[in-house]
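Why should sequence recovery work at all? Because a backbone constrains its sequence more than one might expect. Tight turns favour small or flexible residues, buried strands favour hydrophobic ones, and helices have their own preferences. The token representation captures these environments compactly. In the example below, the structure is given first.
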């Protein structure tokens, strides 16, 4: 137990409260993490944003298709994480 949590527990005369994320679907979470592990989305998107801000990003049909494909994959990862965490669409 971390020192801060121990002190709070002793001061408040009770066990420290824990915030735990509940994983409803471990397989979906594993799939999402595997997809993220195979990609470099954050770095690639940062590079694309930098090029776009400089006006140096050519929007050729190939680049547009690659962006669309990447957005689809990000959507899949998001859906898997939402499923894994048990978040319902109507709970937003």
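From this structural description, the recovered sequence reads:
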């Amino acid at each position: 137990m971390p020192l801060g949590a121990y002190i709070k527990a002793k001061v408040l005369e009770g066990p420290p409260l824990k915030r735990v994320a509940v994983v409803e679907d471990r397989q979906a979470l594993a799939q999402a993490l595997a997809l993220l592990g195979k990609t470099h989305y954050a770095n690639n998107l940062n590079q694309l944003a930098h090029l776009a801000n400089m006006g140096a990003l050519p929007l050729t049909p190939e680049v547009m298709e690659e962006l669309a494909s990447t957005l689809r994959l990000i959507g899949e990862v998001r859906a898997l994480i939402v499923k894994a965490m048990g978040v319902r669409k109507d709970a937003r």
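A few observations help interpret the result. The chain has one domain: 22-91.
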